[in-house]
């Protein structure tokens, strides 16, 4: 689903990472800088993307011909007000990019754009989001493609984990923080639902590769392996040497995604044959070794 516009890796003149001070953006900045690429890290302290002058201020931080990685978002989207604010962010970014046309654009989206199915999803799966969060990401993808005449690469990560995660979402990130404090890890139900989890470093590396090849089209960032939440919690406790108890509890509401959300990673292998996703246990070890930061 990706088309490489560069036949081989080519260092861009400069990469502007919009949202470069955040969890995913910071990992992208680090991955690019390791390749010796000049990076403009644009964070909230540089421009408030909801401000009335956001488009002009952002345009002033960009240069014509930049490669741009667009990460910034208010996420997860929980209500219509957050959806509205995210579309304001997109509109301001589009206006700025019209003023300083980039050579290439990567948009960081989400697997939430896909509807739920009971078989491994590829990039050709139906983009029919059932959540406001998914609707935001799909609308953002459509707006960027419709309003900008630039090569566009879209990456749709599944659940991301890593030491700098700011959301403390249910799953590896929360489990590792609780284990570090020897606190109970309370599951939703018995933690039986199975999901794919991807290390933030792997997402950043895929974006780095897309930048070097100027890859247009859509790619999922999902390992192809699913793990039950109880399994993840118990693995975290074992790896960390924690005294935390893993406790099931009555489930409130329906099990998300029918308890199963698998992906087919074949297109990643086709696009980048030498890339390998980090196995979950190895990623948990790496994250624990780097130290979980408070959310």
Description:
- The protein has helices at residues 23-34, 54-61, 80-99, 132-147, 172-180, 200-213, 229-240, 266-271, 280-290; strands spanning 2-4, 15-18, 39-42, 67-70, 104-108, 152-157, 159-161, 185-186, 194-195, 197-199, 215-221, 227-228, 246-247, 260-261.
- With 295 residues, it is of the alpha/beta class.
- Strand 5 (104-108), helix 4 (132-147) and strand 6 (152-157) form a beta-alpha-beta unit.
- It is globular, with a radius of gyration of 19 Å.
Topology:
Layout: E1 2-4, E2 15-18, H1 23-34, E3 39-42, H2 54-61, E4 67-70, H3 80-99, E5 104-108, H4 132-147, E6 152-157, E7 159-161, H5 172-180, E8 185-186, E9 194-195, E10 197-199, H6 200-213, E11 215-221, E12 227-228, H7 229-240, E13 246-247, E14 260-261, H8 266-271, H9 280-290
Parallel strand pairs: 2-3, 2-4, 4-5, 5-6, 6-11, 7-10, 8-13, 9-14
Antiparallel strand pairs: 1-11, 9-12
Helix pairs in contact: 1-6, 2-3, 3-4, 5-7, 7-9
Sum up the overall morphology in one term.
globular
As an assembly, this protein is single chain
- Would you count the extended β strands for me? 14
Uncertain stretches of 5 or more adjacent residues: none
Strand order of the largest sheet: 1-11-6-5-4-2-3
Order of helices and strands: EEHEHEHEHEEHEEEHEEHEEHH
Major sheet summary line? 7 strands, mixed
Could you tell me how far the N terminus lies from the C terminus, measured between alpha carbons in angstroms? Answer: 35 Å
Structure class: alpha/beta
Average predicted confidence as pLDDT: 96
Q: How much of the residues is beta strand, in percent?
A: 15-25%
Question: What is the CA-atom radius of gyration, in angstroms?
Answer: 19 Å
The number of helical segments is 9
**Approximately how much helix is present in the residues?**
25-40%
